[in-house]
Design brief:
2 domains; six-stranded mixed sheet; alpha+beta; four-stranded antiparallel sheet; disordered N terminus; 41% strand; Immunoglobulin-like
Length: 266
């Protein structure tokens, strides 16, 4: 899948995130735990990343952000351009109506003797910034996304928008950059009926084939982001995390709902 090069510097992300914080309330949560199993397909590092994500999702829920929890990891490249990685540090999780600022993080390995399974467990303290005015009936439900795909497999998922007829934007971020997969030249924007199930891709003649941008990597992380809006709000900037976040937060919270997932291509 061809995408444009993505390069977002951490200082820019901090600036944008800090701009959003002032209009939100703050809730403190402590000793919130997330865990993920280590397996043949999931390494220790990957399990820790997933456990960290689960902990931050739980932090959002404990703070009262119960619906549409999703996460955005600000992707940055080092100045020498040789290493591309995700900035998980102190400010990397958002929700449709909340943002997590991690103030303390503890990582453990736990062996479940009964299940004979090894888990990475991440425990965090955090402050959650949340917006007050949201539409609690407005939600984006997505099904059928697998945590791991093999190279050459086709991506497909099902979804419903609950509450209001909507328009969808589907963003995709990999190691080489970002792209808006829908709408596209073959699948034009359309109003989606509330409660009706749809399949992505919409058109049977379109395939989203899973390919690693760096063939030398054992696995590659893919960040998927879907945003539904009650009215058709165009996204016209180049696709980067910063631009997508600016676009999302320019839309009133009650007018949007979102979904985020991190998957692996093996």
């Amino acid at each position: 899948m061809r995408v444009k090069r993505l390069s977002v510097f951490l200082s820019v992300i901090f600036l944008i995130f800090n701009t959003f914080l002032f209009a939100q309330k703050t809730v403190t949560v402590k000793k919130v735990e997330g865990r993920w199993e280590v397996s043949e397909d999931i390494t220790m590092k990957q399990a820790e990343e997933r456990a960290f994500l689960e902990a931050k999702k739980t932090a959002l829920q404990e703070a009262g952000v119960m619906e549409n929890v999703w996460s955005v990891f600000g992707q940055i490249s080092q100045e020498n351009g040789q290493e591309f990685h995700e900035a998980y540090s102190q400010m990397s999780v958002l929700a449709i109506s909340g943002m997590v600022n991690v103030t303390d993080k503890k990582v453990d390995k736990i062996w479940d003797e009964q299940a004979k399974r090894l888990y990475k467990v991440v425990t965090i303290n955090a402050t959650v910034k949340k917006e007050d005015k949201i539409d609690s009936e407005y939600a984006l439900e997505v099904k059928g996304i697998e945590p791991i795909y093999k190279v050459g497999e086709h991506f497909q998922c099902r979804f419903r928008v609950h509450g209001t007829d909507s328009f969808l934007k589907f963003f995709w971020f990999d190691n080489s950059g970002g792209a808006m997969l829908y709408p596209n030249n073959y699948e034009k924007k359309m109003m989606l009926k509330a409660g009706e199930e749809y399949t992505i891709p919409f058109d049977n003649s379109v395939d989203y084939t899973m390919e690693k941008q760096d063939k030398n990597l054992d696995s590659e992380k893919i960040n998927i982001m879907m945003v539904a809006t009650k009215t058709n709000i165009p996204f016209t900037e180049s696709v980067s995390y910063v631009n997508v976040l600016k676009w999302i937060y320019s839309i009133p919270a009650e007018q949007r709902c979102s979904f985020y997932e991190l998957i692996l291509i093996k």
